């Protein structure tokens, strides 16, 4: 008789046994569901609060007028999203290394990895700064209307301090997520959101500072969030945080390579959907097109929050389980979570179809924009289904260190296939926004199919062996005397 599956937790020290009957299968599904949502639940709440700062900003600014909404939406969805995607991706190397090191019991290295990421990301923020400074000519070069580009450029320059808050925020979040200390992030994010809403009301409506007030609120809430996370790390994570260390400046090149692969993977994903906003600016009646798409992308972003939370849970689960040499636990976790995410995506699609004539009222009082949003709702629903699976697989890629492979897949599916197809449908075939979006959906569909194929072909036992070499090579190359000894043994076995 087949043994019941082991739970695979830290106390048991064992992997799952093969699930060969319904009871064992049900046990695995329930166990993985609990583990995934224990991590993803608080992360989703934290990201809701973090994403809510941009969404609430658009809602407040939308009451000022269509031009203000277009300008601020462009600044946030193009300029700030460009920076957010790159910085978030650069910080994801910390997620891979911290997760695998935590699973392997090398907890003292988490603080070193986080500090190393701070150093690298500060340099990246300096490199990205000109994008904010020259946002107006960049947006005009991309074809945006002069009045929209000028307003967006001024707003981008105003929120430049927010860019440097990412330097502290993202590595600190990955440091805490790798240890499943996610409730602290959730409560800090909630406090920042409440403060942000209050500042928006105070600065825009009470002080009459218009879009300037919105920019100041973004800067203050961003830095408040970052500083609060650092205080928590230094005060309540004494095992993983052992003070500042010169080790943060060692092996920077190896860390940069992994960080850059992560950044390219995320940027290709985030910029892909952001580019549709820019392309819509070239269509007739650009203001209504941009406003309608911004509302759809905003709502799609809210749905993505759930799957980004699952993305984080997948990264933590896969990296921890591979670090603990539990291949079957990693495999079962991936399959169960993908199936549950797909079901959620289908539910969101049905919900969008039911409320397609009404949800735009939350964002704008323009009847023309509301009607145009209703016409795009079907494409929004399809996008939600596809985006329910893709973030989960990206989380697997981060946990297993596959960032470079996924970056190549994203490049081909998004920018060689999907984007050109969208341009042809939108401009040549004259389907407008619907054509642009349909082509880009085709790119997402192709990417999802290829990533599922990669998962199907994955040898999880082999991944465990590669993870050992990958994790301890960072210890081997100059981290500490003890780390070099452990790393030398493991590298020899690899």
From TrEMBL:
Membrane-spanning residues: 74-97, 118-139, 151-170, 182-204, 216-237, 258-281, 301-320, 332-356, 376-398, 405-429, 435-456
Top-level taxon of origin: Eukaryota
Localization terms from the record: Membrane
Any GO BP: xenobiotic detoxification by transmembrane export across the plasma membrane
GO MF assignments: antiporter activity; xenobiotic transmembrane transporter activity
Sections of the chain in a coiled coil: none
GO cellular component: membrane
Keywords: Membrane, Transmembrane, Transmembrane helix
Pfam families for this protein: MatE
UniProt topology in membrane: Multi-pass membrane protein
Family (UniProt): Belongs to the multi antimicrobial extrusion (MATE) (TC 2.A.66.1) family.
Name this polypeptide is given: Protein DETOXIFICATION
Gene source species: Cucurbita maxima
């Amino acid at each position: 008789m087949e043994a019941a599956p082991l739970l695979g937790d830290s106390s048991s020290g064992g992997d799952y046994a093969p699930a060969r009957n319904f009871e064992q299968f049900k046990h695995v599904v329930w166990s993985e569901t609990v583990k995934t949502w224990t991590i993803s639940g608080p992360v989703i709440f934290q990201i809701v609060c973090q994403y809510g700062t941009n969404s609430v900003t658009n809602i407040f600014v939308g009451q000022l007028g269509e031009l203000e909404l277009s300008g601020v939406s462009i600044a946030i969805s193009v300029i700030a999203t460009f920076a957010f995607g790159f910085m978030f991706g650069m910080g994801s190397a910390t997620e891979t290394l911290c997760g695998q090191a935590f699973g392997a019991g090398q907890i003292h290295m988490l603080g070193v990895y986080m500090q190393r990421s701070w150093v690298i990301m500060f340099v990246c923020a300096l490199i990205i700064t000109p994008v904010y400074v020259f946002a107006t000519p960049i947006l005009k070069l991309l074809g945006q209307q002069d009045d929209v580009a000028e307003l967006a450029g001024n707003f981008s320059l105003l929120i430049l301090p927010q860019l440097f808050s990412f330097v502290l925020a993202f590595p600190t979040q990955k440091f805490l997520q790798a240890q499943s200390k996610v409730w602290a992030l959730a409560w800090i994010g909630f406090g920042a959101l409440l403060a942000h809403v209050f500042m928006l009301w105070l600065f825009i409506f009470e002080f009459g500072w218009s879009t300037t007030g919105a920019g100041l609120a973004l800067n203050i809430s961003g830095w408040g969030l970052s500083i609060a996370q650092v205080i928590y790390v230094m005060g309540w994570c004494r095992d993983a945080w052992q003070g500042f260390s010169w080790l943060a400046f060692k092996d920077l090149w190896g860390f940069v390579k992994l960080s850059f692969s992560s950044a390219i993977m995320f940027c290709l994903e985030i910029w892909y959907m952001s580019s549709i906003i820019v392309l819509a600016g070239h269509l007739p009646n650009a203001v209504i097109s941009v406003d309608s798409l911004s509302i759809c992308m905003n709502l799609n972003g809210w749905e993505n929050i759930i799957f980004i939370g699952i993305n984080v849970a997948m990264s933590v689960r896969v990296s921890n389980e591979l670090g603990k040499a539990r291949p079957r636990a990693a495999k079962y976790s991936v399959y169960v979570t993908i199936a549950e995410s797909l079901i959620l995506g289908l539910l969101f699609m049905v919900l969008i179809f039911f409320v397609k004539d009404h949800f735009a009222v939350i964002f704008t009082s323009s009847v023309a924009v509301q009607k145009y949003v209703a016409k795009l709702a079907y494409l929004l629903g399809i996008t939600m289904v596809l985006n329910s699976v893709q973030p989960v697989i990206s989380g697997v890629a981060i946990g297993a260190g596959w960032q470079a492979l996924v970056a190549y897949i994203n490049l081909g599916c998004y920018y060689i296939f999907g984007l050109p197809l969208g341009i042809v449908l939108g401009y040549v075939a004259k389907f407008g926004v619907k054509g642009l979006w349909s082509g880009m959906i085709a790119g997402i569909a192709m990417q999802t199919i290829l990533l599922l194929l990669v998962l199907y072909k994955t040898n999880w036992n082999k991944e465990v062996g590669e993870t050992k070499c990958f994790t301890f090579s960072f210890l081997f190359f100059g981290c500490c005397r003890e780390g070099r000894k452990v790393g030398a043994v493991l590298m020899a076995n690899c």
